[in-house]
Write a structure and sequence with these properties.
Blueprint (H helix, E strand, L loop, with lengths): L15 H10 L1 H8 L7 H9 L7 E4 L11 H9 L7 E11 L5 E12 L3 E9 L2 E8 L2 E4 L7 H8 L8 H7 L4 E11 L15 E12 L17 E8 L5 E9 L13 E14 L2 E11 L2 E13 L12
Antiparallel strand pairs: 1-7, 2-3, 2-13, 3-4, 4-5, 5-6, 7-8, 8-9, 9-10, 10-11, 11-12, 12-13
Helix pairs in contact: 2-3
């Protein structure tokens, strides 16, 4: 949080004092989280305090306003992106850079994401020298080319790749997923990432974002051998920049134990956020060519896209384990 400070303004933004007061009201929850450090660390505490409000690299969130009468933010976003129901699949190629908890890059690899909407996925990560990691999800069947006997956490992490693209909002809504608009929030955003930290608080940009909630569920089923039900049901929030109506970010709370109820207030969760930027047109659709994945308030990985192709001749066998 060194570069993620909260502005004290009289314009309705959350102030540091208000944030601290909110923290005190949930000290018991935070203490429970701190007692179980790990991948999430401090970010999980921030997530518990912040809820659906300020993200890990935003300075504050103003009071919610009603969306303009007659404006459907989801439809505006789909129209701005050029999305239609005639888009059946996409192939995204580029590179993925992973970062440690200090923000230092640890590895880089080539990546291809094959998406068949709404629920089929294949991710091919090329480490070079003939070394590949290939994972997939096909209508409920999760697999890895290099690992058998996947745990509930392994399976959850593979399916989570489906949520790395903003068009999932359009595909899920088109499939009938529960949808609502939670109003417009004003956010002070400081440009810069851990590898390019913003040092000047006055460099922040005030953004107005339409907040959309959609229930994203991926064919829930019991965990093998445990009798414990798990669910991929997540309350996903998409933030649409009202200046241009492109999706700026997506976030949700991820249960640390994937066998637990994701909506339970008693379950420890970690904040996940994905930022979308550098939109470019391909196949008549605006796609983000810069994708930054945050986990527990820290950047986990960044995908730099080189190309996106739509409606390719993808066989069903592509999404099945080789």
């Amino acid at each position: 949080m060194k570069n993620r400070l909260i502005k004290e303004k009289a314009s309705g933004h959350i102030s540091r004092k208000v944030w601290i007061a909110s923290a005190l009201t949930v000290c018991a929850m935070a203490a429970a989280v701190i007692s179980n450090p790990g991948r999430a660390g401090l970010g999980r505490v921030i997530a518990v305090i912040g809820g659906g409000g300020a993200g890990p690299h935003r300075t504050g969130v103003g009071s919610k306003q009603a969306t303009t009468a007659g404006v459907d933010a989801g439809q505006q976003a789909a129209a701005a992106a050029g999305w239609t129901a005639n888009i059946h699949n996409s192939v995204t190629a580029g590179s993925i850079t992973r970062y440690d908890r200090t923000g230092a890059a640890t590895s880089q690899a080539g990546i291809i994401l094959y998406m068949k909407y709404p629920e089929s996925l294949r991710v091919d990560i090329d480490h070079g020298g003939g070394s590949h990691d290939i994972i997939g999800f096909d209508q409920g069947s999760v697999w890895s080319s290099s690992k058998s006997g996947l745990t509930a956490t392994d399976s959850r992490d593979i399916r989570a790749w489906l949520r790395t693209r903003p068009e999932r909002l359009f595909a899920k809504r088109g499939g009938g997923a529960a949808y609502r608009e939670a109003g417009v929030v004003t956010v002070d955003h400081i440009p810069g990432m851990p590898w390019q930290p913003a040092k000047d608080l006055d460099a922040s940009i005030a953004l107005q974002l339409a907040q959309i909630e959609i229930i994203d569920d991926m064919n829930p089923r019991p965990v093998a051998g445990t009798g414990t039900p798990w669910s991929d049901r997540r309350r996903n929030y998409y933030y649409v920049n009202t200046n241009g109506w492109l999706i700026a970010s997506e976030r949700w709370m991820e249960p640390d134990d994937p066998t637990q109820d994701p909506d339970s207030l008693k379950v420890s969760k970690t904040a996940v956020e994905i930022d979308y930027g550098n939109y470019q047109q391909s196949g008549g659709v605006q796609w983000p060519f810069d994708i930054v994945h945050w986990y527990g308030g820290k950047v986990d990985y960044r995908i730099t896209v080189a190309s996106v192709k739509v409606n390719q001749p993808l066989q069903d066998t592509l999404f099945q384990k080789p």
